[in-house]
Amino acid sequence: MASALYQSIEILSRDKGIDPNVVVGAVEDAIALATRKYYKTQENMRAEMDRDTGEIRAYVYKTVVDTPELLEDEVNQLTLEQARELAPEVEVGGELRFYKDTSPLGRIAAQMAKQVIFQKVREAERDTVFNEYAHRANEVLTATVKRLEPMDVIFDIGKAEARMPKREQSRLEQFAVGERVRVVLIRVDRAAKGPQVIVSRASPLLVQNLFQSEVPEIYDNTVSIKAIAREAGERTKIAVQSRDKDVDPVGACVGMKGMRVQSIIRELRGEKIDIIEYSDEITTFAEKALQPAKVSRVSITDLGEKQLEVIVDDTQLSLAIGKKGQNVRLAAKLLQWKIDIKSEEEKRQEVEQQMTAMGGGPSTPIEQVTELGDTILEKLIAAGITTVESLADMTPEQLEEVPGIGEKTVEKISVAVRHYFGQYEEGEERPATAVDVSAVEEEHSMEQTPEEILAGEAGTGAAKEENAFSAEDIADAEEQASDSDAYSDADAREEQIEQDNDMVDTLVDEAQEVSDEGIDDGNDRG
What we know:
By secondary structure, the protein is α/β, with parallel strands linked by helices. It has 20 helices and 15 strands. The strands form 4 sheets. The chain has a 5-stranded mixed beta barrel with strand order 5-6-7-9-8.
């Protein structure tokens, strides 16, 4: 029957989860050290414990060598001749034991033995913990919250304590002592105070394990998880693929009325989860990864560097990027590609710039727009607008930002540019005055009978000659009107324009009177 001491050692071993022989060895080492301290000797000392009686005996042992020439340590070695005087049957290489009395060992020796035992037990416990968990990295464990520290959470995982640092926690989660949760074992660190087991609730492996537990199709490999991207406490994107064409991978993960995925969301304390169908085609996969945003098109810009360019509608740009860039960041992590998102407008401007750079771009001088006065041209050129094309691309708001350009001048510039490109709005007259005079002649011709037209043919020729002179006058008047912006004051400018317009109207009326007189003369001569 085992002694009471050995029974106590077995109980301690079970509590610490270590081998009883380790504790027995620690006790024997402690007694040997205490005995050496008591006798103040440097001799080799050992101790042995009788498990039946619980008695511990300490002894000095010396090694037997053949000849005195081989004797290197007189304290711990004996020659064969000396040894045979004490034990005739001893051989070279054997040991002789000299037992010491341990009964005089006092309280100090016992305290020293206690410290040695505790040290040996702690070392054995550390080795046991390391050997137990070192090979179980990335495994999901069920742990109990043991205590809460300012930054860390300490869990009880059975044979050891596990620590969850701040970076491995989800910001949505708060724990209570005694609460049971699932954690991922990240690694086991060897520290001076013993091995530290590091666990996490922010690892994507936790999401993967939860899906394996909740979705039978994933557990039996009908549906496989291809990639997971996670920002703990915020959002997770998971890509799944089905090996059976009759099984919808997304539907299997969501479950009827969302029961399966809702169970996982509850375990993650409300973290959002996007389930995406995996595709071998990277462009198709990228479109799905950027959900809920709608993607217009995806193109590969650099295959070697794994770069994608994604074009979305202007209204979808913020949704595709996500809050603080979260959506596109998770999509890039899921795809393992770099993603550059642009709106349709940004892409259009980029293409225009590239085309301009490649072709040198159009460069028609702004002076070609003859309807603009010298003053307006000077203001535009001073603002860096030197080509007709750059002027045509500017909006009214941009033109009003040019110093000296007002709202009415903007309207005039817009009309001049349209006329330069041959564009006239409905009901707008072309600037050539000769056309207006011919229109007047046509109007009078339509009012005459055939006999009046034949009778007034000679007079009409004289009238045409007079009209030609009048048309030149009208052109000169319009040229003067085009320079009306020379006045710096806006009111003076408008007054000058009105005067010029009156002059044009007067010339047109005079031309019409001349035409009427010519027609009347022709009728009289007829």
